[in-house]
Every structure is written in C-alpha cells, then in structure tokens.
Amino acid sequence: MKTIFAHRGVSSLAPENTLSAIKLCVDYQVRWFECDIDILQDDTIVLSHDSTLDRCTNRSGTLFELNRQDLERIDAGSWFSDEYRGEPIPTLEQLIALMNQYQLNANIEIKSGDVSAEVCRRLLAGLDCALNQLDDGREYIISSFNPMLLAEFKRLRPQARVACLFENHTLNDDWYVIMEWTGAEYIHPQNEGLTQQQVQRFKSKGYQVNVWTVNAKDRANQLFNWGVDGIFTDFPQNFLSKYQED
C-alpha cells in the first residue's frame, strides 16, 4: 500500500492547516493528511506550522501569546483567497472531531517548541489526552524534527506510532541511533537530495519511509519504485487515481 499524505491538508486548494483544507481530503478520496500542532498560553492546542501569526493570518505576533478566546478574532484564510475569508485557526479538539466525522487518518507533527521544556511537556500531555477521543479504526502517526519530544511522547503513549523527521543536512550517520532511541517506526526524510541507497538502508533496518514534500509526479513515481511507502504532497488531488488503492 502506497500512502499519499495531504500536506497541511489539500494546501494547494485551501489555506494550510485549516479544517477547510483537511475536509477537501474527503472530496478527493485522500484518506491521510498531515498537519502541525502547537500550544497557546492557556494550553489550547491548535493547528499551525509557524510559531508566529505573520505568514498565514491577518495578525502579527507570537502564537504562544494567544488564548482560546483570541482565536475568534483571527482570520487564517483571507491571505489565501476571498473564498476563505474568516477561516479560523482550528483547535486540536476540532481536528479530532473532523477525523471521526469523515473517517480520516492523520500524521500530526509536533512543532519543536521555542518557549520552554515545561510548555513542551504540556503540549505532549494535551496531545495524548486528545488522541483518546479518536474513534476505533482511526489511525495516526506522530512526527517531529525533535527526537527528544518524540522519545518523551513514546514514553507517555507507548502505543503511538512515531516518525523522526530529517532534513537532508541533518541525515547523518547517527540517524539509526536517533531512530532506535525514540522508538520510531517511521523515518520521514526530506525529498531534496534523497538517494535510492539511503532508502534501501532505511528499509533494510525495517523502517517505513515517507518522504516530504513531493509535488512532481515523476519524482513520486521514482520514489515509489525505490520502495518508499508514502509521500507528503501539496497536490494530493493529482495522485488520486493511481494511489488511492494499491
């Protein structure tokens, strides 16, 4: 089975990390999506790639300065198009409800956190609690670039499947030690510069390999021929007919 992950939802057609972008997975029969989570000052967990509001909302400033009640005054959609004017920043609870409603599966990326270790612990605890609300049959992978967070989350929730994210320049000879240390089942390497020999090494150690971010069809085809298990893409709608079922 080859897996197509809608990167931050169907982010080529709707604003990234919003419920609208994730709901589009249903329209295109994409069963898996990827999203990013971070935490607010009052421990509300929200979907956001950045720790600041500047790039994808009508506000400036730091995400962590916000509380839940601030979210209703933030527009996370009009930067993308008029159609999504007023689109809110979703909470993790809303995401879980949407997954249950539409029977979707998620790769949830924990942002590394730049406030404090204690805030990171609260983020992990809140994620662990939220996942208990998932219906039976819903699947998830928890990923991060921060192996310490992954190792701690695996300790907190041993049944969770976790994935180590690597940029090309951080994929050094110690990758296997990091994978073992975190207890990860998946390795998520960067697309750029990834070689067939690297993929073979990952597979030979028994890991599943999902590559980010792959938008070209020929590159996706090459990676799948190398034995890659999945790709993250901004254009999941382009891969439907070939990779919906395998």
TrEMBL record:
Coiled-coil segments on the chain, per record: none
Superkingdom per UniProt: Bacteria
Alphabetized InterPro entries for the sequence: GP_PDE_dom, PLC-like_Pdiesterase_TIM-brl
Domain (GP-PDE) ranges: 2-243
GO biological processes: lipid metabolic process
PANTHER family the record matches: GLYCEROPHOSPHODIESTER PHOSPHODIESTERASE, CYTOPLASMIC (PTHR46211:SF1), GLYCEROPHOSPHORYL DIESTER PHOSPHODIESTERASE (PTHR46211)
Name of this protein: GP-PDE domain-containing protein
Organism: Limnobaculum eriocheiris
